[in-house]
Design brief:
Number of strands: 6
CATH topology: Thrombin, subunit H
Distance between the termini: 52 Å
Radius of gyration: 16 Å
Strand order of the largest sheet: 1-2-3-6-5-4
Largest sheet: 6 strands, antiparallel, barrel
CATH superfamily: predicted glycosyltransferase like domains
Order of helices and strands: HEEEEEEH
Number of domains: 1
CATH class: Mainly Beta
Length: 113
């Protein structure tokens, strides 16, 4: 007999909300702290979606940390670190404005045009 946890696990979907697009482009994480200078951490974006990105960063960030990501010239978004494997980070975009989401969509689609 299955308990409630087993039933829920069986219904879980591994499907993602947004399609991931493979990319190879620079990305920078900009960190702001009170009473400290701004820190910019360079990295390389490997996958991009409407909801976030995967990147190898030159320094490790902490899970849950919110940074300002510069994805392309003029495209900056807030993103939270959702997963971490060595220097490979998974970021989820947060507080995304409509014009930022449209810019990310154009960037994703530009990969295949």
């Amino acid at each position: 007999m299955l308990n409630d946890i087993d039933k829920t696990a069986g219904q879980y979907s591994t499907r993602r909300r947004f399609t991931r697009f493979p990319v190879d482009r620079p990305v920078s994480a900009i960190l702001y702290w009170d009473s400290s200078p701004t820190v910019t951490i360079p990295g390389r974006c490997q996958s991009l979606s409407e909801g976030g990105l995967g990147a190898i960063m030159s320094q490790q960030l902490r899970i849950g940390e919110v940074v300002n990501l510069e994805v392309a010239n003029g495209i900056r978004l807030y993103a939270a670190v959702r997963n971490l494997h060595g220097f490979t980070h998974g970021f989820e975009f947060v507080l995304v404005k409509d014009n930022q989401r449209a810019a990310i969509l154009r960037l994703c689609r530009a990969r295949f045009t």
